[in-house]
Amino acid sequence: FCNGVLHHSRSINRGMKEMVRVMKPGAAGWLYLIGKPGGIHWDTVELLRKVMKPVIAEYARNVFRILGIPENRVFHILDHIMVPINTLSSRKEIDDMFTTNGVTDFRYLERGTDFDLAEKNWNLQKAQTADPEVLWKYGNAEQRYFFFK
């Protein structure tokens, strides 16, 4: 189970290789990565990462606390902004990594839940199929996979 971790590592592929290595035959796995293209949301996160790079993380957390932002929201906001690595991956890149690491039984989940970017993205793309700007505006959301060894 890897939910939003490998995109903060130096090599998503090496992390995936290790996940597969430690799985028992027939085991099921879960992988969640940030999608590429990222759209306005992830482009903004990347811009904020550059702006916030010289800021000490604890200082940023304290500013949010002073502003009265709930602790769970502080984590959610700063989770991607204050990390040294935040890699976005396309569906093809992830599919290729699965194949490279010997995983042939994997399933991409197109939809999410009511409150996440994947579901909002899916609904927007279905409703606005004639709008070529949808992917640029909203990105490829999250990449979620079930896979089996």
Tell me what you see in this structure:
The chain is α+β, with helices and mostly antiparallel strands. The chain has helices at 12-22, 39-52, 57-66, 71-81, 91-100, 117-127, 134-138; strands at 2-3, 28-34, 105-108, 142-148. β1 (2-3), α1 (12-22) and β2 (28-34) form a beta-alpha-beta unit. The longest helix has 14 residues, at 39-52. The protein starts with a strand and ends with a strand.
Topology summary:
Blueprint: E1 2-3, H1 12-22, E2 28-34, H2 39-52, H3 57-66, H4 71-81, H5 91-100, E3 105-108, H6 117-127, H7 134-138, E4 142-148
Parallel strand pairs: 1-2
Antiparallel strand pairs: 2-4, 3-4
Helix pairs in contact: 3-4
* Counted beta strands: 4
Biggest sheet layout? 4 strands, mixed
Question: How many helical stretches?
Answer: 7
Rg (CA only):
17 Å
Gross morphology is globular
Q: Which percent range fits the helix content?
A: 40-55%
**How far is the N terminus from the C terminus?**
13 Å
Mean pLDDT score, rounded? 88
Helix-strand makeup class: alpha+beta
Return the string of H and E elements.
Answer: EHEHHHHEHHE
Low-confidence stretches: none
The share of residues in extended strands comes to: 5-15%
What order do the strands of the largest sheet run in, or round the barrel if closed?
Answer: 1-2-4-3
Short summary:
This protein is an alpha+beta fold and 149 residues long. The chain has helices spanning 12-22, 39-52, 57-66, 71-81, 91-100, 117-127, 134-138; strands spanning 2-3, 28-34, 105-108, 142-148. Helices cover 48% and strands 13% of the residues.
